Amino acid sequence: MGYTGKCxxxxxxxxxxxxxxxxxxxxxxxxxxxxxxGPTHNAIFPAEAVAIEGTLxxxxxxxxxxxxxxxxFCASCGxxxxxxxxxxxxxxxxxxxxxxxxxxLKPEVVIWTQDAPDWAQIDPALEQWPQQPxxxxxxxxxxxxxxx
Length: 148
Ligand SMILES: [Zn+2]
Ligand SMILES: [Zn+2]
Prior knowledge:
Elements: E1 3-6, E2 13-16, E3 22-26, H1 29-34, E4 40-46, E5 50-53, E6 56-62, E7 68-74, E8 80-85, E9 91-95, E10 109-111, E11 127-129
Parallel strand pairs: 3-10, 10-11
Antiparallel strand pairs: 1-2, 2-5, 3-4, 4-9, 6-7, 7-8, 8-9
């Protein structure tokens, strides 16, 4: 079971050979900035299961935790592809937007609800965290840090 995907222009493609450890909707300020004012929707995969072809750009910021968050995007069209934390190099946080439809993913957990705007519609049936929750457990052992 897996997923395929591509950016808006098609220069970056993904092939993912795993189910995600979890899926999240994130309302942190940085996500609102990169997602045009809404939350990001993310599927957290074992890093080694995510194969990406094409040229990515990257930019980083320091999170409140002190960890460095790096987001990777298509160098041609700017589509957000995935994010990664310096504390969790064995995970890749893939944006729902690049996954080919139809797929079976939907948000399971909502995070950084304290930063959501008043108008945000947050499903009360979903698990919610005001800030960052603990990292999800993954079925595979942590992989060595990769060069990306
Ligand atoms: Zn692109
Ligand atoms: Zn976020």
